[in-house]
Amino acid sequence: MAKQEDVFKKLISHAKEYGFIFPSSEIYDGLSAIYDYGQNGAELKNNIKQYWWKAMVQLNDNIVGIDSAIFMHPTIWKASGHVDAFNDPLIDNKDSKKRFRADVLIEDYCAKLEEKAQKEIEKAAKRFGDAFDKNEFENTNPRVLEYREKQKTILSRMAQSLEKEDLADVKALIEELEIADPDTGSKNWTDVRQFNLMFGTKLGASADTATDLYLRPETAQGIFVNFLNVQKTSRQKLPFGIAQIGKAFRNEIVARQFIFRMREFEQMEMQYFVPPGTELGFYETWKEKRLNWHLALGLGAENYKFHDHEKLAHYANAAADIEFKFPFGFKELEGIHSRTDFDLSAHEKHSGRKLQYFDAERNENYVPYVVETSVGLDRLFLAIFSNSLKDEVLEDGSERTVLSLPPALAPVKAAILPLMKKDGLGEYGEKIFNDLKYDFNMIYEDKDSIGKRYRRQDAIGTPFCITIDHDSLTDNTVTLRDRDTMKQERVAVADLRRIIDEKTNFRNLLSKI
């Protein structure tokens, strides 16, 4: 645990030192669970958005994108169920005075059971070597079966209790499992209670006439209320999807783990509208598609797994999370939900407007069903950043810190590094920089030794460093250094655009999906 905490602290420190993420309002001591993205963080974040948008909208002729407003009519949140049911079960520790989500405490307990099961599997793999059959061991080893059966029983009981709003039993389960405050070890808990997560605000020129509004807690409802507008103007036939990237706001009482859980965050969501009765087939299809999209990033298949929901939301008939192995364990990265016709039907009822589709093949009007994919942009940023940050010991015994980002996502694609500013090397480097900047985000840097500059570019994840020396002035060649291999080769200046594009183009990611 201490090692994990050290890794996480280094990650946060690196993110700040190299211009990825800063505490918001830091000179005023900041705000809890609010962060600003720095110059490199903003570039990485925008590149992640591009990857999602290109894969979701550009590559699918039946998916279109919108950008709906953050402020929405307050009745929307009544119709969606957020006013009445958008709650988290919270519990306080009487000794430490700290507040926790009761369901997360239980889920973390179950995660430790899974860690124990994995240790049994790892020990057996070392013991049996090449003869080890992982599937057979998992299905027959008594300890592994015991750990996983216990997990299943606990999560099932919690889901049923939350479904029935039996918060007393949720507390009883925490006490039976002897779950303690992770920081102090105290087991002195209050009762569990529900807390609504929406931020309230007002719209209007005066307090007397102002309308009570909410900052949207999700982007999905902006898609649902625009369903007919988009369908008619795009002339799409079912099945088709509407995608959106946008800010959402939740008054998370227990916000922690850096940018994993924040009060202001971004979502990348797609709602796929399908004929009734076909939704579960499309649900399985989108589970596979979304996992393939993540795997194309090259972060390691072993770092992903599906988690099927025991407790379904009020709108769903099937739901699963794609979980990622963060420095603090497997946690939700993306949700795939079969939302039935709940949303459109609820908005029909509350607005008095029909939100139906005429299906020419079926010769009938109906309210479409919906399959949703929703990934947290900030969580995805953290997954990519944490997986890419590495310390390496080199052949000469020295060390380097490298951010081995997928090249297409790297904030800077190439750095122009003249050995010195004088003797015309600076001017030649600036000429190359000014030529390539139309196609790539570039950096020009002529301060410090070339070794220090290489290390700085490694730390922000720049795929290529281009070094200009005196020979460059006569033969129009430069030294091209690869971030991952650190190999250097002499290449013609005329070939730089092609070489950089071949490695950093989004096609490299999109073609793997």
UniProtKB/TrEMBL annotation:
Binding site for ATP: 250-252, 260-265, 332-333, 376-379
InterPro entries, A to Z: aa-tRNA-synt_IIb, aa-tRNA-synth_II, aa-tRNA-synth_II/BPL/LPL, Anticodon-bd, Anticodon-bd_dom_sf, Gly-tRNA_synthase/POLG2, Gly_tRNA_ligase_bac, GlyRS-like_core
One Pfam family recorded for the sequence: HGTP_anticodon
Domain Aminoacyl-transfer RNA synthetases class-II family profile: 177-411
Enzyme class: ligase
Enzyme Commission code(s) on record: 6.1.1.14
Catalytic activity: tRNA(Gly) + glycine + ATP = glycyl-tRNA(Gly) + AMP + diphosphate
MF GO annotations: ATP binding; bis(5'-nucleosyl)-tetraphosphatase (asymmetrical) activity; glycine-tRNA ligase activity
Residues binding substrate, per UniProt: R101, E218, F265, E266, Q267, M268, E269, E372, T373, S374, V375, G376
Keywords for the protein's UniProt record, in alphabetical order: Aminoacyl-tRNA synthetase, ATP-binding, Cytoplasm, Ligase, Nucleotide-binding, Protein biosynthesis
NCBIfam families: glyS_dimeric (TIGR00389), PRK04173.1 (NF003211)
HAMAP family associated with the record: Gly_tRNA_synth_B
Physiological role: Catalyzes the attachment of glycine to tRNA(Gly).
Matches recorded under PANTHER family: DNA POLYMERASE SUBUNIT GAMMA-2, MITOCHONDRIAL, GLYCYL-TRNA SYNTHETASE/DNA POLYMERASE SUBUNIT GAMMA-2
Protein name: Glycine--tRNA ligase
Organism: Kaistella chaponensis
